[in-house]
Amino acid sequence: MHRDPQLTNAALMARRQHAVARGVGQAHPIFVERASNAELWDVEGRRYIDFAGGIAVLNTGHCHPQVIAAVKEQLDRYTHTCFQVLAYEPYVELAERLNALAPGNFAKKSLFLSTGAEAIENAVKIARAFTGRSGIVAFTGGYHGRTMMTLGLTGKVAPYKTGFGPFPGEIFHALFPNELHGVSVADALHSVETVLKNDIEASRVAAFILEPVQGEGGFYVAPAAFVEGLKAIADKHGILLIADEVQTGAGRCGTWFASEQWPVAPDLIATAKSMAGGFPISGVVGRADVMDAPGPGGLGGTYAGSPIGCAAALAVIKAFEDEHLLARSQALGERLIAGLRHMAQSAPSIGDVRGLGAMVAIELFEGGNLARPDADLTRRVVAEAARRGLILLSCGTYGNVIRILVPLTAPDALVDEGLQIMADSFAAVR
Fold first, then answer.
1. What strands, in cross-sheet order, belong to the sheet with 359-364?
2. Helix (H) and strand (E) counts for the chain?
3. For the domain with range 9-63+324-429, which CATH number is right: 3.40.640.10, 3.90.1150.10, 3.30.379.10, 3.20.20.70?
4. In whole angstroms, what is the distance from residue 56 CA to residue 361 CA?
5. What is the pLDDT of residues 230-284, one digit of tens each?
6. Disulfide-capable partner of 240 in 178, 205, 267, 329 (CB 3.0 to 4.6 Å)?
């Protein structure tokens, strides 16, 4: 392939700095030319293994043939009508499929939108319409999006909330259980009760919202006992439970929705990211009586549930079925956990290895001391891995977590190659 010698990462970074708002971050100073499954190549021809997956968007890999074929076929038919003006069958079929996939022994309905934040916003709207209440209780460390409402829900200030307040009212935060950092399930449930005593009466709370596995917050898994206790509080007071599955959904955690592994079913689920294999679409699925609370015209959006996104999402669901990707997610998670635990034997800074399905992370501490999160080492390992050809992302309240979101379609040999690069990176920056 002929390449323009002047089209380098450095040259493009210089152009970017002049043309793009500085608030748009960039984890690596790399510009992509092409990608396939779990590999990509930059404009200089260098190959990388992708353990980031576009931040959990590529569970079926870059340019999955089935997804690309479905999108190309849809492009030849129509690209947009606005579903609220002229409807189309793929939207209805996708709703039928998601209704069948969502947990809970009750009738369900779905709504499609464009982004994860938009799905969360609409889940809140629906909960408020159904309950006639305004309050929302979210959790520390949670991340729910970049709009004003979703920033208000997000339980982490820097960099997402810095300089953007004030945020919408009637949002409150309770503790998310995190045994590693000293917050037990009992502590977290007590903090919910404290919010209902000190901040807002339960009769004005519309919903609790939480991630089954915190994404930006550090890949902490919500314990089953906590979810069960939270649902008991919710049911006692007529409060809805919203599962934010923007990052955990579409098979990342070994079931289509991570909340399928909960001991109770959420009333509403927000989903996005990997559901369409790289094409923009999001959704809310939940109890039919709750979903039907807003009147006609109360929900929707110009690009919401685009024909392209619906076609891609249906192809993703078919790829999961054809390639047994839920089982692959579980097996991949086991492989990653085993590899990272082996790595930790020679990297004492790795204080914890955790995950649900193939949503896996390690947390780094100075000398393995759990009281001293090591964000600096985390940055250096991520940068060194990129230098060696592996794309990683960090996250967490303390900036000391390295998360792995490799496509579920990545072959074992490629995953092992990536893990070896991680191990070599730890050895190099010690």
1. 350-356, 359-364, 401-404, 393-395
2. 13, 15
3. 3.90.1150.10
4. 13
5. 999 999 999 999 999 999 999 999 999 999 999 999 999 999 999 999 999 999 9
6. 267
